[in-house]
Amino acid sequence: MLSRTYRCQATASTPDDGRTFPLGTHAAGSPRLALRWLRQRARHISDQLDPPAARPVLAWLHDDQAHEHALEAVVFPRVMGAFPLVRYRWGV
Fold first, then answer.
1. Can you point out the beta strands (E) in 1-92?
2. CA dist., res. 81 & res. 25, Å (int)
3. Rounded CA separation 30/36 (Å)
4. Cβ of 72: how many Cβ atoms within 10 Å?
5. Do 14 and 53 meet the contact criterion of CB atoms below 8 Å apart?
6. Within a domain: 68
7. Which domain holds residue 17?
8. Residue 78 pLDDT > 70, yes or no?
């Protein structure tokens, strides 16, 4: 039997010029494990940010509906498309 692997990736990007910065990757064995890793990585990232910058990540961490949406995007990628977890524009 073939096992499926779900590639997880956390990145940050700058709004001005679109540069991206890798913040971690992981291979998960199921959509739920992928979401679990993503929540753990988001928590680690938010711990390293100043409180105002961490606010959007912390809000997502407590949003169960957003977690379900992210899970659907992993399970049905062709229907949902790419899923940006958290977007934050500096100075807004």
1. 6-13, 20-28
2. 19
3. 10
4. 14
5. no
6. yes
7. 6-80
8. no
Q: Token pair 């992981």 is at which residue?
A: 26
Can you tell me whether residue 12 is helix, strand or coil? Answer: strand
pLDDT, tens only, 4-35: 888 888 888 777 888 888 999 999 999 899 88
Q: Give me the pLDDT at residue 47, please.
A: 95
How far apart CA 68 and CA 16 sit, in angstroms, is 30
- Contacts of residue 7, Cβ cutoff 8 Å, sequence gap at least 6: 25, 26, 27, 28
Which of 22, 20, 26, 21 shows the shortest CA–CA distance to 7? 26
The tally of domains found in the chain comes to 1
- Taking alpha carbons only, the member of 11, 52, 56, 2 closest to residue 29 is 2
**pTM of this structure:** 0.76
pLDDT (mean) for 63-90: 68
- Single out the residue of 52, 50, 61 nearest to residue 86, CA to CA: 61
